[in-house]
Specification:
Layout lengths: L1 E7 L8 E8 L5 H11 L4 E6 L4 E6 L4 E2 L3 H15 L5 E6 L2 E8 L2 E7 L4 E3 L3 H7 L5 E4 L3 E4 L3 H6 L4 H4 L7 E6 L5 E7 L4 E4 L6 H12 L3 E6 L5 E7 L4 E6 L1 E8 L5
Parallel strand pairs: 2-3, 4-6, 11-12, 13-15
Antiparallel strand pairs: 1-2, 1-18, 3-4, 4-5, 6-7, 7-8, 8-17, 9-10, 10-11, 12-13, 13-14, 15-16, 16-17
Length: 260
């Protein structure tokens, strides 16, 4: 079985967010997928099986299966478009988060994602202690989004991973308005067994929604300010969903010898 390593949300190898993608004829047992995800030790390993309509897609971190992952969806779409259905302009993934449609748009791949209701919650001392800086505001959906005063605060913070696990949300995000992009963010995922996700597509269903409201615009150019860095181009739609687009570049194609 082949495994592909693809860097997502970038057009340069060894930047963006790397994901492993396995395209299979049938599903192995869940424990085998968890073991391979731990072996890869990337933030996500994606597993794909062809169905009558589209593909079934599942995502695993080194610790657990997750219900939505943006960068591994982008990486999976890159693999399908470039190695399997090379004439296709659209691919459908059936997932825990419903049907996801990915469209090829010149050099970008546009993903059709669900959005999550956001509610403002009080900023408290626990947030300040976890991030090392007191947020200006906090909103909660599937993930926690904490808003800070400056881009430099977000770029330079060194949060306490143990304290982050005590905060609400699947992922704990820090964001501020950007100088060269609409917003700059970082995503910390200790609850998922990941210290920091280099570029988190699913978190931007909420980060982009927040900045869209604040900035009064439907399109948001987001930059993830991790060490690897990556760009996300987000567009809020009138039907309550969001398009998130990004580039992707392959890094490796390997043959798995061990039996799953």
């Amino acid at each position: 079985m082949k495994q592909y390593i693809v860097d997502a949300f970038t057009d340069q190898p060894f930047s963006g967010n790397p994901a492993a993608v396995c395209v299979m004829e049938q599903w192995p047992c869940e424990e085998s997928m968890k073991r391979l995800a731990r072996e890869n030790n990337l933030s996500e390993t994606a597993f794909i099986v062809k169905e009558e309509e589209g593909y079934h897609l599942r995502w695993f971190t080194p610790a657990t299966e997750v219900e939505l992952c943006g960068h591994a969806t982008l990486a999976s779409a890159y693999v399908i478009f470039n190695y399997y259905d090379t004439d296709a302009e659209e691919v459908i993934f059936n997932t825990m988060s419903g049907k996801l449609i990915i469209t090829r748009r010149n050099n970008l791949y546009q993903m059709d994602f669900p959005m999550y209701e956001l509610k403002e919650i009080p900023v408290d001392d626990q947030m300040e202690q976890a991030f090392g800086i007191r947020p200006l505001k906090a909103v909660l959906g599937l993930d926690l989004v904490c808003v800070f005063d400056t881009e430099e605060q977000v770029r330079n913070m060194r949060p306490d991973q143990e304290l982050l696990t005590k905060l609400p949300g699947r992922i704990q995000n820090a964001t501020a308005q950007g100088k060269e992009s609409d917003c700059v963010s970082r995503s910390f995922c200790p609850k998922l067994g990941i210290v920091e996700d280099p570029v988190c597509g699913s978190a931007h269903t909420q980060i982009a929604a927040y900045w869209s409201h604040v900035l009064g615009k439907k399109t948001v150019h987001a930059y993830q300010a991790s060490e690897r860095g990556g760009h996300l181009y987000c567009e809020l739609r009138d039907d309550g969903r969001i398009n998130i687009s990004g580039a992707a570049v392959p890094v490796a194609v390997s043959e798995l010898i061990a039996k799953l």
